[in-house]
């Protein structure tokens, strides 16, 4: 459980505003359970100890660099 | 001609080369078969009859004049309707793009036409490749079931014997999922191996393109045509193309194949598990050394897949979503809106953890000296059309899309090559599948392993009861 799970309509309204996404109130309600699940899934990424790992901005599948 | 349509690509290529069959007659037969199947399967979004017959006549003349170009010369193939063909609609099976006509060919189309292949039409995809069902189309084994997705139209077309190869794309399993539930072969090559130039993007970090075929040998010769560096695709890998056919019949004696003890064998349909384990055991009987392995960081697989895919897909659709939101199908629209609500910090975390997973998988392969890992491709046979959730025997429910993606996502986030092939049938009569995941750019090795299994069974000769 994190500060964003379960998601609330207020949270999603704020997120949508930040993303410049126009969501009707009923649409926000529909997205609440969806985003609760997605945020809960993404919370697992915070458990990784990342240290100095850089983002794979341009992914290279090769093992030899 | 029906016999020829029922055979595999390499067999028909031999007939065409030896002039025992005509590319024109074969193409006409394929188009007629498609027309007969469309009401039930609706695998195709459009047909390109005129272009196909021109190509077929040209192939016939060239072969007669001694100018055989290779095993795809004169062979009817299909293209997923995510790939541009000049002058032909590229709709991504979406009302948003229903009037969109491409001006140039995708790289995969260029390569196929340079090889003399005859493109008979474009196959349905789950809208914008953003799903695992392809709801427009039916499964040839049971038309009330999904053909998988997102390359479901391609999977259905190849399984229904209406073409010999079809192009698919794979972001979270979209070549291998339809290959699995349609009972055919599908290879997602290494990330960057096949150019995505001219292919509508779903997620730049995860998109792959590759062939779907009836046999492993067909996949090998098709990949040989498609693979290669293309500077127009920023993710294209400048790595020499290996000989995918030369190693095919070498068998698996002495090769080391990892068998996962976690993730890939959790929450499976019993028939899927039984057939997968039998297939892996068959590889052992053929001389492979099986090695138990623990898949590292398995709990990070789905967060990385969705943490990358959702924001990237939304970024691509940014404009279209604002202007045409109501034209999207509800499931795709939901995912696109969801992607806008994910903070950048999550996306960047996904990109960072992805590199940790990549390193961990390399360590696993090196520590165990693995040539490949073998595992089920998907946990379920084809589900019913319109089915949103699957209930497991323990009473828990899982969304169908999540179920289908979870065993294919590892090869997307690691970028490793993975070939899916039939492993038999469930008690229901629906196909099951296994996948072989190899080292980077070792497509030849995984095709060899797949072929070693394929030649001990007769799944490729079974045809759907259409």
Mind explaining what this structure looks like?
The complex is a heterodimer of chains A (65) and B (466). With 65 residues, chain A is mostly helical. Chain A has helices at 9-18, 25-42. Chain A has a domain at 9-47. The radius of gyration of chain A is 16 Å and the shape is elongated. The model of chain A has no long low-confidence stretch (mean pLDDT 88). Chain B is α+β, with helices and mostly antiparallel strands and 466 residues long. Chain B has one domain: Amidase signature (AS) enzymes. The mean pLDDT of chain B is 97. At the A-B interface, helix 1 and helix 2 of A face helix 10, helix 11 and helix 12 of B.
Low-confidence stretches of chain A: none
Q: Flag low-confidence runs of chain B.
A: none
User: Helix fraction of chain A?
Assistant: 40-55%
How much β-strand is present in the residues of chain B? 5-15%
Strand count, sense and barrel status of the largest sheet of chain A are:
none
Please describe the topology of this protein:
The complex is a heterodimer of chains A (65) and B (466).
Chain A (H helix, E strand, L loop, with lengths): L8 H10 L6 H18 L23
Chain B lengths: L1 H5 L2 H9 L5 H19 L2 E4 L1 H16 L11 E5 L26 H8 L3 E6 L28 H8 L5 E6 L5 H7 L2 E4 L19 E6 L2 H11 L29 E5 L9 H16 L3 E5 L7 H24 L5 H11 L3 H24 L4 E5 L12 E3 L5 E3 H7 L2 H6 L3 E8 L5 E8 L4 H12 L12
Parallel strand pairs in B: 2-3, 7-8, 7-9
Antiparallel strand pairs in B: 1-3, 4-6, 5-6, 5-12, 9-13, 10-11, 12-13
Helix pairs in contact in B: 3-4, 6-7, 8-15, 10-11, 10-12
């Amino acid at each position: 459980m994190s500060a964003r799970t379960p998601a609330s309509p207020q949270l999603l309204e704020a997120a949508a505003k930040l993303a410049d996404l126009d969501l009707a109130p009923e649409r926000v309600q529909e997205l609440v359970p969806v985003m609760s699940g997605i945020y809960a899934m993404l919370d697992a990424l915070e458990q990784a100890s990342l240290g100095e790992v850089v983002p794979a901005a341009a992914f290279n599948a090769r093992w030899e660099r | 001609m029906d016999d020829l349509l029922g055979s595999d690509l390499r067999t028909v290529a031999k007939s065409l080369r030896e002039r025992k069959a005509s590319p024109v007659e074969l193409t006409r037969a394929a188009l007629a078969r498609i027309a007969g199947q469309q009401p039930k399967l609706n695998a195709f979004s459009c047909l390109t009859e005129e272009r196909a017959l021109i190509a077929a006549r040209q192939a016939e003349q060239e072969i007669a004049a001694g100018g055989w170009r290779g095993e795809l010369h004169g062979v009817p193939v299909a293209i997923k309707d995510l790939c541009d063909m000049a002058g032909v609609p590229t709709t991504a099976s979406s009302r948003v793009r229903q009037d969109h006509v491409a001006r140039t060919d995708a790289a995969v189309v260029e390569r196929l036409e340079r090889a003399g292949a005859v493109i008979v039409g474009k196959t349905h995809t789950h809208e914008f490749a953003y799903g695992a069902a392809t709801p427009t189309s039916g499964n040839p084994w049971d038309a009330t079931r999904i053909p998988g997705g997102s390359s479901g139209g391609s999977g259905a077309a190849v399984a229904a014997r209406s073409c010999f190869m079809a192009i698919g794309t794979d972001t979270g399993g979209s070549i291998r999922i339809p290959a699995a539930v349609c009972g055919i072969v599908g290879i997602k090559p290494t990330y960057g191996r096949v150019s995505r130039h001219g292919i509508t993007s779903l997620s730049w970090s995860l998109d792959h393109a590759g062939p779907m075929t009836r046999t492993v040998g067909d996949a090998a010769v098709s990949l040989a045509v498609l693979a290669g560096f293309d500077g127009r695709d920023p993710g294209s890998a400048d790595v020499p193309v290996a000989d995918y056919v030369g190693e095919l019949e070498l068998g698996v004696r002495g090769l080391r194949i990892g068998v996962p003890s976690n993730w890939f064998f959790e929450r499976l349909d019993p028939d899927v598990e039984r057939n997968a384990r039998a297939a892996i055991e068959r590889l052992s009987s053929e001389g492979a050394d099986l090695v138990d392995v623990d898949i590292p960081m398995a709990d990070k697989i789905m967060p990385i897949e969705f943490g990358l895919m959702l924001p990237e897909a939304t970024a691509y659709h940014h404009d279209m979503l604002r202007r045409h939101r109501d034209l999207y199908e509800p499931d795709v629209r939901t995912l696109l809106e969801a992607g806008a609500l994910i903070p950048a910090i999550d996306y960047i975390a996904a990109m960072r953890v992805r590199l940790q997973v990549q390193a961990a998988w390399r360590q696993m392969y090196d520590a165990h000296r693995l040539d490949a890992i073998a595992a089920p491709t998907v946990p379920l046979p084809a589900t019913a059309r319109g089915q949103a959730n699957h209930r497991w025997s323990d009473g828990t429910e899982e969304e169908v899309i999540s179920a289908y993606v979870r065993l294919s996502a590892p090869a997307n986030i690691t970028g490793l090559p993975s070939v899916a092939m039939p492993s038999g049938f469930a008690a229901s009569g629906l196909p099951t599948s296994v996948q072989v995941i190899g080292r980077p750019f070792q497509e030849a090795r995984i095709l060899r392993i797949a072929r070693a299994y394929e030649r001990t069974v007769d799944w490729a000769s079974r045809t759907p009861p259409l």
